[in-house]
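Just wondering, does anyone understand these C-alpha coordinates?
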Amino acid sequence: MVVVDSETTTVLRVKGLLEFRCQLDSTDEQLVRNVISRTFETLRSQVKSESCVLAVSNSPLIIWPNKDAYATPEEITPSTLCEDMHQWIQTDEQESSGKKSSKKKSKKSSVASVINLRLMTEVTKPGPLSAPILTKTVLKSHFVSVTLPLDCVVCTGRSDTIKDACEQLIEALTHQLCEMEKVTLQNMKGMTLLVPEPVHFLLPEPKGLVTVVYPVGVPDSQLVAQRKELHQQFELPDDRPYFRRANAYHFPNEPYKDGYLRNPHLALTHPTLDNGKVYLVQGIYSYHHYMQDRVDDNGWGCAYRSLQTICSWFQQQGYVERPVPTHKEIQQALVDVGDKQASFVGSRQWIGSIEVQAVLSHLLGLTSKILFVSQGAELASKGRELANHFLTEGTPVMIGGGVLAHTILGVAWSETTGQIRYLILDPHYTGAEDLQVITDKGWCGWKGPDFWDQTAYYNLCLPQRPKVI
Protein backbone atom coordinates (compact mmCIF):
# COMPACT_ATOMS: atom_id res chain seq x y z
CA MET A 1 0.00 0.00 0.00
CA VAL A 2 1.18 3.51 -0.84
CA VAL A 3 -0.11 6.43 1.19
CA VAL A 4 0.06 9.80 -0.58
CA ASP A 5 -0.03 12.55 2.03
CA SER A 6 1.28 16.04 2.74
CA GLU A 7 4.81 14.68 3.30
CA THR A 8 4.90 12.92 -0.05
CA THR A 9 7.23 14.53 -2.57
CA THR A 10 7.63 11.91 -5.27
CA VAL A 11 5.82 8.75 -6.33
CA LEU A 12 8.05 6.21 -8.05
CA ARG A 13 6.35 3.90 -10.50
CA VAL A 14 8.28 1.01 -12.03
CA LYS A 15 6.85 -1.00 -14.92
CA GLY A 16 8.33 -3.90 -16.80
CA LEU A 17 7.71 -7.24 -18.45
CA LEU A 18 9.02 -10.52 -17.08
CA GLU A 19 8.87 -13.71 -19.08
CA PHE A 20 7.29 -16.57 -17.16
CA ARG A 21 8.41 -19.85 -18.77
CA CYS A 22 8.12 -23.34 -17.42
CA GLN A 23 7.89 -26.91 -18.64
CA LEU A 24 5.12 -29.08 -17.26
CA ASP A 25 6.06 -32.74 -17.61
CA SER A 26 3.20 -34.03 -15.53
CA THR A 27 -0.56 -33.59 -15.37
CA ASP A 28 -0.61 -34.09 -11.63
CA GLU A 29 -2.12 -30.88 -10.23
CA GLN A 30 0.15 -30.63 -7.20
CA LEU A 31 3.28 -31.20 -9.29
CA VAL A 32 2.13 -28.53 -11.74
CA ARG A 33 1.55 -26.11 -8.87
CA ASN A 34 5.02 -26.84 -7.51
CA VAL A 35 6.60 -26.07 -10.91
CA ILE A 36 4.67 -22.80 -11.16
CA SER A 37 5.73 -21.76 -7.66
CA ARG A 38 9.39 -22.57 -8.41
CA THR A 39 9.20 -20.48 -11.58
CA PHE A 40 7.85 -17.52 -9.65
CA GLU A 41 10.61 -17.97 -7.09
CA THR A 42 13.14 -17.81 -9.94
CA LEU A 43 11.60 -14.54 -11.10
CA ARG A 44 11.78 -13.13 -7.58
CA SER A 45 15.46 -14.08 -7.46
CA GLN A 46 15.94 -12.34 -10.80
CA VAL A 47 14.43 -9.12 -9.42
CA LYS A 48 16.75 -9.35 -6.38
CA SER A 49 19.85 -10.10 -8.45
CA GLU A 50 22.62 -7.68 -9.42
CA SER A 51 21.52 -7.93 -13.05
CA CYS A 52 18.29 -6.06 -12.23
CA VAL A 53 18.32 -2.53 -13.70
CA LEU A 54 15.95 0.43 -13.28
CA ALA A 55 16.01 3.04 -16.05
CA VAL A 56 14.37 6.40 -15.34
CA SER A 57 12.09 7.35 -18.25
CA ASN A 58 13.02 10.43 -20.31
CA SER A 59 16.34 10.58 -18.52
CA PRO A 60 19.93 9.28 -18.79
CA LEU A 61 19.59 7.90 -15.24
CA ILE A 62 20.17 4.16 -14.83
CA ILE A 63 20.18 2.50 -11.41
CA TRP A 64 21.34 -0.94 -10.29
CA PRO A 65 19.15 -1.31 -7.18
CA ASN A 66 20.87 -4.44 -5.87
CA LYS A 67 24.41 -3.09 -6.30
CA ASP A 68 24.10 -0.69 -3.39
CA ALA A 69 21.93 1.55 -5.60
CA TYR A 70 24.85 2.15 -7.97
CA ALA A 71 23.81 4.58 -10.71
CA THR A 72 24.94 6.53 -13.75
CA PRO A 73 25.74 9.40 -14.37
CA GLU A 74 28.35 9.51 -11.64
CA GLU A 75 26.80 12.62 -10.06
CA ILE A 76 24.03 10.36 -8.78
CA THR A 77 24.95 8.48 -5.63
CA PRO A 78 22.97 6.20 -3.29
CA SER A 79 22.58 9.15 -0.90
CA THR A 80 21.06 11.45 -3.56
CA LEU A 81 17.55 12.51 -2.58
CA CYS A 82 14.77 11.00 -4.69
CA GLU A 83 13.26 14.39 -5.47
CA ASP A 84 16.58 15.48 -6.98
CA MET A 85 16.06 12.99 -9.80
CA HIS A 86 13.62 15.49 -11.32
CA GLN A 87 16.60 17.60 -12.42
CA TRP A 88 17.65 14.85 -14.82
CA ILE A 89 14.26 14.20 -16.40
CA GLN A 90 13.67 15.85 -19.75
CA THR A 91 10.41 17.67 -20.32
CA ASP A 92 8.56 18.04 -23.63
CA GLU A 93 10.12 21.47 -24.07
CA GLN A 94 13.70 20.26 -23.75
CA GLU A 95 15.93 18.86 -26.42
CA SER A 96 16.78 15.22 -26.04
CA SER A 97 20.41 16.06 -25.34
CA GLY A 98 20.75 14.45 -21.93
CA LYS A 99 21.08 17.82 -20.21
CA LYS A 100 19.81 18.23 -16.70
CA SER A 101 16.55 20.06 -16.29
CA SER A 102 16.82 23.38 -14.51
CA LYS A 103 13.20 23.08 -13.52
CA LYS A 104 12.74 21.54 -10.09
CA LYS A 105 9.48 20.40 -8.60
CA SER A 106 8.02 22.97 -6.24
CA LYS A 107 7.96 21.71 -2.68
CA LYS A 108 4.72 23.62 -2.19
CA SER A 109 2.87 21.51 -4.73
CA SER A 110 -0.12 19.70 -3.23
CA VAL A 111 0.13 16.83 -5.70
CA ALA A 112 3.02 14.40 -5.56
CA SER A 113 4.84 14.15 -8.87
CA VAL A 114 5.42 10.80 -10.54
CA ILE A 115 8.74 9.44 -11.78
CA ASN A 116 8.41 6.51 -14.16
CA LEU A 117 11.04 3.77 -14.26
CA ARG A 118 11.48 0.76 -16.55
CA LEU A 119 12.43 -2.62 -15.14
CA MET A 120 15.16 -4.26 -17.20
CA THR A 121 17.73 -7.04 -16.86
CA GLU A 122 21.37 -7.07 -17.91
CA VAL A 123 21.96 -9.91 -20.35
CA THR A 124 25.75 -9.71 -20.38
CA LYS A 125 28.11 -10.37 -17.52
CA PRO A 126 31.75 -9.37 -17.03
CA GLY A 127 34.49 -11.91 -17.62
CA PRO A 128 35.16 -14.57 -20.29
CA LEU A 129 32.19 -16.22 -21.95
CA SER A 130 31.96 -19.99 -22.06
CA ALA A 131 31.32 -21.73 -25.33
CA PRO A 132 27.73 -22.87 -25.83
CA ILE A 133 26.95 -26.55 -25.53
CA LEU A 134 24.16 -27.95 -27.67
CA THR A 135 22.20 -31.02 -26.68
CA LYS A 136 19.14 -32.62 -28.18
CA THR A 137 16.48 -34.29 -26.07
CA VAL A 138 13.13 -35.57 -27.34
CA LEU A 139 10.38 -35.13 -24.73
CA LYS A 140 6.65 -34.81 -24.74
CA SER A 141 5.71 -32.00 -22.37
CA HIS A 142 3.57 -28.91 -21.98
CA PHE A 143 5.52 -25.65 -22.27
CA VAL A 144 4.01 -22.53 -20.72
CA SER A 145 5.12 -19.03 -21.73
CA VAL A 146 3.45 -15.94 -20.27
CA THR A 147 4.51 -12.29 -20.18
CA LEU A 148 3.90 -10.80 -16.74
CA PRO A 149 3.15 -7.04 -16.70
CA LEU A 150 4.71 -5.78 -13.46
CA ASP A 151 3.57 -2.34 -12.29
CA CYS A 152 4.65 -1.20 -8.81
CA VAL A 153 4.31 2.11 -7.02
CA VAL A 154 6.10 3.41 -3.95
CA CYS A 155 5.89 6.77 -2.23
CA THR A 156 8.95 8.68 -1.06
CA GLY A 157 9.27 11.41 1.53
CA ARG A 158 11.44 14.51 1.54
CA SER A 159 14.37 12.80 3.25
CA ASP A 160 14.29 9.54 1.27
CA THR A 161 17.40 8.74 -0.76
CA ILE A 162 17.72 6.71 -3.93
CA LYS A 163 19.05 3.81 -1.85
CA ASP A 164 15.93 3.99 0.35
CA ALA A 165 13.71 4.02 -2.73
CA CYS A 166 15.53 1.07 -4.31
CA GLU A 167 14.93 -1.04 -1.21
CA GLN A 168 11.24 -0.14 -1.29
CA LEU A 169 10.95 -0.84 -5.02
CA ILE A 170 12.61 -4.26 -4.83
CA GLU A 171 10.39 -5.18 -1.89
CA ALA A 172 7.30 -4.01 -3.84
CA LEU A 173 8.30 -5.95 -6.97
CA THR A 174 8.94 -9.09 -4.93
CA HIS A 175 5.60 -8.73 -3.15
CA GLN A 176 3.79 -8.22 -6.46
CA LEU A 177 5.30 -11.42 -7.85
CA CYS A 178 4.02 -13.22 -4.74
CA GLU A 179 0.55 -11.81 -5.39
CA MET A 180 0.77 -12.83 -9.05
CA GLU A 181 1.70 -16.37 -8.01
CA LYS A 182 -1.29 -16.48 -5.68
CA VAL A 183 -3.71 -15.26 -8.36
CA THR A 184 -2.24 -17.61 -10.96
CA LEU A 185 -2.66 -20.67 -8.74
CA GLN A 186 -6.18 -19.63 -7.71
CA ASN A 187 -7.34 -19.32 -11.32
CA MET A 188 -5.68 -22.35 -12.92
CA LYS A 189 -7.86 -24.31 -15.34
CA GLY A 190 -6.07 -27.54 -16.13
CA MET A 191 -2.91 -26.58 -17.99
CA THR A 192 -4.28 -23.13 -18.82
CA LEU A 193 -3.00 -20.17 -16.84
CA LEU A 194 -4.63 -16.74 -16.69
CA VAL A 195 -2.27 -13.79 -16.86
CA PRO A 196 -2.28 -11.79 -13.61
CA GLU A 197 -2.38 -8.00 -13.97
CA PRO A 198 -1.81 -5.31 -11.32
CA VAL A 199 -4.36 -2.50 -10.97
CA HIS A 200 -3.89 0.62 -8.82
CA PHE A 201 -6.72 2.13 -6.76
CA LEU A 202 -6.71 5.38 -4.80
CA LEU A 203 -8.76 4.83 -1.63
CA PRO A 204 -10.21 7.54 0.62
CA GLU A 205 -7.76 9.21 2.97
CA PRO A 206 -5.77 8.16 4.86
CA LYS A 207 -5.59 4.78 3.11
CA GLY A 208 -3.92 6.00 -0.06
CA LEU A 209 -2.85 4.18 -3.21
CA VAL A 210 -3.33 0.39 -3.21
CA THR A 211 -2.31 -2.16 -5.85
CA VAL A 212 -4.47 -5.24 -6.44
CA VAL A 213 -3.66 -8.16 -8.77
CA TYR A 214 -6.58 -9.46 -10.86
CA PRO A 215 -6.67 -12.27 -13.46
CA VAL A 216 -6.91 -10.96 -17.02
CA GLY A 217 -10.11 -11.94 -18.80
CA VAL A 218 -12.19 -12.48 -15.67
CA PRO A 219 -14.95 -9.82 -15.62
CA ASP A 220 -15.69 -7.73 -12.54
CA SER A 221 -18.99 -9.57 -12.13
CA GLN A 222 -17.00 -12.72 -11.23
CA LEU A 223 -14.70 -10.97 -8.76
CA VAL A 224 -17.29 -10.01 -6.16
CA ALA A 225 -15.82 -12.32 -3.50
CA GLN A 226 -12.35 -10.81 -3.95
CA ARG A 227 -13.75 -7.29 -3.74
CA LYS A 228 -15.65 -8.12 -0.56
CA GLU A 229 -12.42 -9.37 1.01
CA LEU A 230 -10.66 -6.16 0.00
CA HIS A 231 -13.47 -4.02 1.46
CA GLN A 232 -13.12 -5.88 4.74
CA GLN A 233 -9.34 -5.65 4.67
CA PHE A 234 -9.35 -1.87 4.18
CA GLU A 235 -12.48 -1.26 6.30
CA LEU A 236 -14.49 0.21 3.42
CA PRO A 237 -18.30 0.37 3.21
CA ASP A 238 -20.06 -2.29 1.13
CA ASP A 239 -22.40 0.15 -0.64
CA ARG A 240 -19.85 1.77 -2.99
CA PRO A 241 -17.45 0.26 -5.53
CA TYR A 242 -13.78 0.94 -4.86
CA PHE A 243 -12.06 -2.02 -6.51
CA ARG A 244 -13.77 -2.38 -9.87
CA ARG A 245 -11.45 -1.92 -12.82
CA ALA A 246 -13.27 1.28 -13.80
CA ASN A 247 -12.09 2.73 -10.47
CA ALA A 248 -8.44 2.23 -11.39
CA TYR A 249 -6.30 5.24 -10.50
CA HIS A 250 -5.30 7.40 -13.44
CA PHE A 251 -1.83 8.81 -12.94
CA PRO A 252 -1.61 12.57 -13.59
CA ASN A 253 1.15 12.22 -16.19
CA GLU A 254 -0.90 9.88 -18.40
CA PRO A 255 -3.28 11.34 -21.01
CA TYR A 256 -6.78 9.93 -21.42
CA LYS A 257 -7.05 8.09 -24.73
CA ASP A 258 -10.63 9.19 -25.51
CA GLY A 259 -9.72 12.88 -25.66
CA TYR A 260 -12.31 14.15 -23.17
CA LEU A 261 -11.29 16.46 -20.35
CA ARG A 262 -11.72 15.08 -16.85
CA ASN A 263 -12.75 17.16 -13.84
CA PRO A 264 -11.96 20.65 -15.20
CA HIS A 265 -13.35 22.12 -11.96
CA LEU A 266 -10.21 21.05 -10.11
CA ALA A 267 -8.36 23.95 -11.75
CA LEU A 268 -10.68 26.50 -10.10
CA THR A 269 -10.36 28.37 -6.82
CA HIS A 270 -13.26 27.96 -4.42
CA PRO A 271 -15.32 31.05 -3.57
CA THR A 272 -15.14 32.41 -0.03
CA LEU A 273 -18.42 32.90 1.83
CA ASP A 274 -19.04 33.97 5.42
CA ASN A 275 -19.27 30.73 7.41
CA GLY A 276 -19.67 28.91 4.10
CA LYS A 277 -18.71 25.39 3.09
CA VAL A 278 -18.03 23.89 -0.31
CA TYR A 279 -19.85 20.72 -1.40
CA LEU A 280 -18.54 19.10 -4.60
CA VAL A 281 -19.12 16.21 -6.98
CA GLN A 282 -17.25 13.13 -5.75
CA GLY A 283 -15.12 11.20 -8.20
CA ILE A 284 -14.32 11.55 -11.89
CA TYR A 285 -16.45 12.62 -14.84
CA SER A 286 -15.82 13.61 -18.47
CA TYR A 287 -16.75 17.04 -19.82
CA HIS A 288 -19.27 16.58 -22.66
CA HIS A 289 -20.33 19.65 -24.65
CA TYR A 290 -21.59 20.86 -28.04
CA MET A 291 -19.88 19.73 -31.26
CA GLN A 292 -18.02 16.74 -29.82
CA ASP A 293 -18.01 13.24 -31.40
CA ARG A 294 -18.56 14.76 -34.87
CA VAL A 295 -22.12 15.67 -33.89
CA ASP A 296 -23.36 19.19 -34.66
CA ASP A 297 -25.81 19.68 -31.81
CA ASN A 298 -25.21 23.41 -31.39
CA GLY A 299 -28.47 24.96 -30.21
CA TRP A 300 -30.34 21.79 -29.26
CA GLY A 301 -28.09 19.21 -27.58
CA CYS A 302 -27.22 20.80 -24.23
CA ALA A 303 -29.36 18.41 -22.15
CA TYR A 304 -27.99 15.44 -24.12
CA ARG A 305 -24.45 16.58 -23.25
CA SER A 306 -25.31 17.09 -19.60
CA LEU A 307 -26.76 13.57 -19.55
CA GLN A 308 -23.57 12.22 -21.15
CA THR A 309 -21.49 13.89 -18.41
CA ILE A 310 -23.68 12.20 -15.79
CA CYS A 311 -23.37 8.81 -17.55
CA SER A 312 -19.58 9.23 -17.69
CA TRP A 313 -19.54 9.72 -13.91
CA PHE A 314 -21.37 6.43 -13.27
CA GLN A 315 -19.13 4.63 -15.76
CA GLN A 316 -15.88 5.96 -14.32
CA GLN A 317 -16.93 5.24 -10.74
CA GLY A 318 -17.49 1.61 -11.70
CA TYR A 319 -21.26 1.54 -11.23
CA VAL A 320 -21.98 0.66 -14.87
CA GLU A 321 -19.94 -0.84 -17.69
CA ARG A 322 -22.03 0.56 -20.55
CA PRO A 323 -20.29 3.25 -22.67
CA VAL A 324 -21.65 6.80 -22.59
CA PRO A 325 -24.75 6.78 -24.86
CA THR A 326 -24.86 8.72 -28.12
CA HIS A 327 -27.60 11.21 -29.01
CA LYS A 328 -29.41 8.56 -31.07
CA GLU A 329 -29.15 5.98 -28.29
CA ILE A 330 -30.64 8.51 -25.88
CA GLN A 331 -33.46 9.23 -28.31
CA GLN A 332 -34.11 5.51 -28.93
CA ALA A 333 -34.28 4.92 -25.18
CA LEU A 334 -37.03 7.54 -24.89
CA VAL A 335 -38.90 5.86 -27.74
CA ASP A 336 -38.49 2.45 -26.09
CA VAL A 337 -40.00 3.65 -22.80
CA GLY A 338 -42.95 5.18 -24.66
CA ASP A 339 -42.03 8.79 -23.96
CA LYS A 340 -41.48 9.73 -27.64
CA GLN A 341 -42.70 8.72 -31.08
CA ALA A 342 -40.43 6.74 -33.42
CA SER A 343 -39.83 9.88 -35.51
CA PHE A 344 -37.95 11.37 -32.54
CA VAL A 345 -34.87 9.25 -33.33
CA GLY A 346 -32.50 11.26 -35.51
CA SER A 347 -34.30 14.54 -34.84
CA ARG A 348 -32.90 17.75 -33.31
CA GLN A 349 -35.54 18.04 -30.60
CA TRP A 350 -34.68 19.14 -27.08
CA ILE A 351 -35.02 17.04 -23.99
CA GLY A 352 -35.32 18.07 -20.34
CA SER A 353 -34.74 16.81 -16.82
CA ILE A 354 -37.67 14.38 -16.89
CA GLU A 355 -36.32 12.74 -20.04
CA VAL A 356 -32.84 12.58 -18.48
CA GLN A 357 -34.35 10.75 -15.51
CA ALA A 358 -36.10 8.29 -17.85
CA VAL A 359 -32.93 7.54 -19.85
CA LEU A 360 -30.84 6.98 -16.71
CA SER A 361 -33.45 4.53 -15.49
CA HIS A 362 -33.86 2.68 -18.80
CA LEU A 363 -30.25 2.46 -19.98
CA LEU A 364 -28.35 2.33 -16.69
CA GLY A 365 -30.95 1.11 -14.19
CA LEU A 366 -30.46 4.21 -12.04
CA THR A 367 -32.98 6.14 -9.95
CA SER A 368 -33.08 9.92 -9.74
CA LYS A 369 -34.85 12.51 -7.66
CA ILE A 370 -36.47 15.50 -9.34
CA LEU A 371 -36.37 18.90 -7.65
CA PHE A 372 -38.98 21.30 -9.04
CA VAL A 373 -38.38 25.06 -8.84
CA SER A 374 -41.24 27.28 -10.05
CA GLN A 375 -38.95 30.22 -10.78
CA GLY A 376 -35.21 30.81 -10.90
CA ALA A 377 -35.29 33.17 -7.93
CA GLU A 378 -36.13 30.18 -5.70
CA LEU A 379 -32.86 28.42 -6.55
CA ALA A 380 -31.05 30.64 -4.08
CA SER A 381 -32.98 28.92 -1.29
CA LYS A 382 -32.07 25.38 -2.38
CA GLY A 383 -28.61 25.41 -0.82
CA ARG A 384 -29.45 22.83 1.83
CA GLU A 385 -30.91 20.34 -0.67
CA LEU A 386 -27.97 20.68 -3.05
CA ALA A 387 -25.37 20.58 -0.28
CA ASN A 388 -26.94 17.41 1.09
CA HIS A 389 -26.99 15.84 -2.38
CA PHE A 390 -23.29 16.41 -3.00
CA LEU A 391 -22.45 15.31 0.53
CA THR A 392 -24.37 12.03 0.35
CA GLU A 393 -24.64 11.11 -3.36
CA GLY A 394 -21.87 13.18 -4.95
CA THR A 395 -23.22 12.83 -8.49
CA PRO A 396 -23.41 15.60 -11.13
CA VAL A 397 -26.83 17.30 -11.26
CA MET A 398 -28.62 18.20 -14.50
CA ILE A 399 -30.71 21.38 -14.39
CA GLY A 400 -33.06 22.37 -17.19
CA GLY A 401 -35.15 25.48 -17.55
CA GLY A 402 -36.64 27.23 -20.57
CA VAL A 403 -34.39 26.31 -23.51
CA LEU A 404 -31.16 25.82 -21.55
CA ALA A 405 -29.62 22.94 -19.65
CA HIS A 406 -26.52 22.94 -17.44
CA THR A 407 -24.65 20.59 -15.15
CA ILE A 408 -24.20 21.53 -11.50
CA LEU A 409 -21.01 20.08 -9.99
CA GLY A 410 -21.24 21.60 -6.53
CA VAL A 411 -22.32 24.48 -4.33
CA ALA A 412 -20.65 26.85 -1.92
CA TRP A 413 -23.29 27.58 0.71
CA SER A 414 -23.49 29.37 4.04
CA GLU A 415 -26.13 28.00 6.38
CA THR A 416 -26.02 31.15 8.51
CA THR A 417 -26.24 33.83 5.80
CA GLY A 418 -27.89 31.86 2.98
CA GLN A 419 -25.21 32.96 0.50
CA ILE A 420 -24.76 30.50 -2.33
CA ARG A 421 -22.61 29.95 -5.40
CA TYR A 422 -23.08 27.21 -7.97
CA LEU A 423 -20.28 25.30 -9.70
CA ILE A 424 -21.52 25.11 -13.30
CA LEU A 425 -20.26 22.92 -16.14
CA ASP A 426 -21.67 24.48 -19.29
CA PRO A 427 -22.50 22.07 -22.15
CA HIS A 428 -22.95 25.00 -24.60
CA TYR A 429 -19.19 25.28 -25.14
CA THR A 430 -18.21 24.65 -28.79
CA GLY A 431 -14.41 24.86 -28.69
CA ALA A 432 -11.51 22.48 -28.29
CA GLU A 433 -10.55 20.60 -25.12
CA ASP A 434 -8.51 23.52 -23.81
CA LEU A 435 -8.63 23.59 -20.00
CA GLN A 436 -7.36 27.15 -19.72
CA VAL A 437 -9.94 28.53 -22.14
CA ILE A 438 -12.73 26.55 -20.48
CA THR A 439 -11.88 27.83 -17.00
CA ASP A 440 -10.80 31.38 -17.94
CA LYS A 441 -13.94 31.99 -20.01
CA GLY A 442 -16.27 30.50 -17.39
CA TRP A 443 -17.47 27.45 -19.28
CA CYS A 444 -16.62 25.68 -16.04
CA GLY A 445 -16.89 28.12 -13.19
CA TRP A 446 -18.59 29.40 -10.05
CA LYS A 447 -21.79 31.37 -10.67
CA GLY A 448 -24.01 33.44 -8.42
CA PRO A 449 -27.82 33.24 -8.07
CA ASP A 450 -28.21 35.79 -10.87
CA PHE A 451 -26.91 33.17 -13.33
CA TRP A 452 -30.43 31.74 -13.50
CA ASP A 453 -33.40 33.36 -15.23
CA GLN A 454 -35.24 34.65 -12.18
CA THR A 455 -38.72 34.11 -13.71
CA ALA A 456 -38.22 30.77 -15.55
CA TYR A 457 -39.10 27.43 -14.01
CA TYR A 458 -36.39 24.81 -13.50
CA ASN A 459 -36.31 21.06 -12.98
CA LEU A 460 -33.25 19.49 -11.40
CA CYS A 461 -32.41 15.81 -11.94
CA LEU A 462 -30.43 14.46 -8.96
CA PRO A 463 -29.11 10.96 -9.85
CA GLN A 464 -28.79 8.54 -6.92
CA ARG A 465 -25.91 6.14 -6.31
CA PRO A 466 -26.76 2.42 -6.45
CA LYS A 467 -25.71 0.53 -3.34
CA VAL A 468 -23.28 -2.01 -4.80
CA ILE A 469 -19.80 -3.27 -4.00
Summary: The longest strand covers residues 8-24.
